[in-house]
Design a protein that fits this description.
Blueprint lengths: L3 E6 L2 H4 L12 H4 L2 H4 L2 H6 L1 H16 L5 H8 L5 E6 L5 H4 L5 E3 L2 E8 L18 E3 L17 E5 L10 H10 L2 E5 L11 H4 L5 E6 L11 E4 L2 H14 L9
Parallel strand pairs: 1-2, 1-7, 2-3, 7-8, 8-9
Antiparallel strand pairs: 4-5, 4-6
Helix pairs in contact: 6-10
The structure holds adenosine-5-diphosphoribose and zinc ion (ZN).
The site of adenosine-5-diphosphoribose (APR) has 23 residues, from helix 1 and strand 8.
């Protein structure tokens, strides 16, 4: 019976592919005001500014390739039932070969209607459209929803918007998880960061980050360092080790 391995990742996983993180020095939130480019209020104020921000990220994403950490995660599928839960909107995990990737905060290669039903954190009848589609070019001002005529926007979750935590699925996943790995996240943004305590009961837990948030990592084996070094090392150990014997790290 294949063991279940959950990998919870953040921007640090893709940093070495050339995608800036959010809160590190020179990170995205140093260059842009969150409330302008990643909030419903910013969208109401200036849609063009928001669309330009995500156009830049779309183009940047196209110019980036998976790094050794993404590839190591894909390799783990040789032996484990791997479930990726990522905060990242890039598709580098899929490009590296991962087949099970849950994007908590959306995907840069999808667009949706500005009145999409998944957006508000509470029931709002004015948000009832279900238009969502894959894109090969960034969304522009004036791109209209074919269903209701609303302006199209990136399929990304902004601050103050709902994150679908798939409660029932998550509860069963926590129960069947044998190994949990956190990589490249400051674990400051909720509800995503709530996954760390949620998997606290998992007997084998690892966390990879050059500046780990130790106060959140009790019971974790912390592997300080960059993802492109530490993730392949951990993957090699987990692929070598007999089931249930841990990596010995
Ligand atoms: N390898 C591993 N980790 C790294 C690397 C690297 N090469 N470089 C930086 N890191 C770590 C940093 O030390 C930090 O802990 O990655 C983390 C990045 O943290 P944030 O920038 O806060 O990104 P993240 O945790 O993914 O942010 C969560 O916040 O802005 C929102 O929606 C956005 O999904 C994002 C969420
Ligand atoms: Zn619509």
């Amino acid at each position: 019976m294949q063991q279940t391995l959950v990998i919870f990742s953040g921007a640090g996983l893709s940093a070495e592919s050339g995608i800036a993180t959010f809160r590190d020095a020179g990170g995205l939130w140093e260059q842009h005001r969150v409330e302008d480019v990643a909030s419903p209020e910013g969208w109401d104020r200036d849609k063009k500014l928001v669309l330009n921000f995500y156009e830049e990220r779309f183009r940047k994403g196209l110019a980036c390739a998976p790094n050794p950490a993404h590839r190591a995660i894909a390799r783990l599928e040789e032996k484990y039932d791997v479930v990726n839960i990522t905060q990242n909107i890039d598709t580098l995990l899929e490009q590296a070969g991962s087949t099970n990737v849950w994007h908590l905060h959306g995907r840069i290669d999808f667009q949706k209607c500005e009145f999409h039903f998944s957006i508000p954190p509470y029931d709002d009848p004015s948000y009832s459209c279900d238009y969502r589609a894959r894109i090969s070019a960034p969304t522009k001002l004036g791109d209209r929803c074919p269903k209701c005529g609303g302006q199209l926007r990136p399929d990304v979750v902004w601050f103050g918007e709902a994150v679908d935590m798939r409660q029932e699925y998550l509860e069963t996943l926590v129960r069947r998880t044998d190994i949990f790995v956190g990589v490249g996240t400051s674990a400051q943004v909720y509800p995503a960061a709530g996954l760390l305590p949620l998997f606290n009961g998992t007997k084998e837990k690892y966390f990879i980050d050059p500046k780990p948030a130790y106060d959140l990592l009790h019971g974790f084996k912390v592997l300080e360092g960059r993802a492109s070094n530490r993730m392949p090392e951990l993957a090699d150990r987990l692929l070598q080790s007999p089931p249930g014997n841990g990596s010995g790290m």
